Amino acid sequence: MDLPLCSFDLKTGIFCPRCAEKLRRGLYTELDVKVMKKLLELEKKFTKLQKAGYVSTVDGEDTIFIVLKEGSLKDLDFRELSQLRKILTNELGKPVRILEDAADPIKFIERIVAPARVIAVNKIWLPDGSEETRVILDHERNLKMKCESLIRVVEKVKKMKLNVDFEKKWRGTRRFKKTREKTAITRTDIIKKQPQLKTE
Length: 200
Fold this sequence. Notes:
Helices cover about 40% and strands about 20% of the residues. By secondary structure, it is an alpha/beta fold. Mean pLDDT is about 85; it is low at about 175-195.
């Protein structure tokens, strides 16, 4: 596997000056090191991984996203990919999602958010001169991950500030809240209308 850190260093846990500098600068985290080391071990079982390339691993709270170079998964069939994901999930203690990077940032976002669809993309210039990308997805219920996780993955892999919005929002929870509020008001009104007993 094509890795950004030396294979020997990952196996021994002792890093050469070049790899140590990458870790010192925060380019790769302890989680990256753990995942790369495990992927090296799994090359014996999944020999097709030898042609793959590693990009990054992002902890998205409820899911860990492992991003490989574009084309890394083309030789892995569904069964092999499922087995690989299961092994990594057991190793890391969280559900794992493995996906490919893309040269086009929007294409990369489309891969992450599927089955949700990207409807529109806008560039926003902030007062401090920085740039933010606003992505509008089709429906909130189609996004099978937290918006915070999506923002975190895109920020680390593509170095982009992301703002996520939806063409249609999931209103189930909001309707439930409104119903509760309405019920509470009705009960209060009933209590107010009840005759008060006079005490002497």
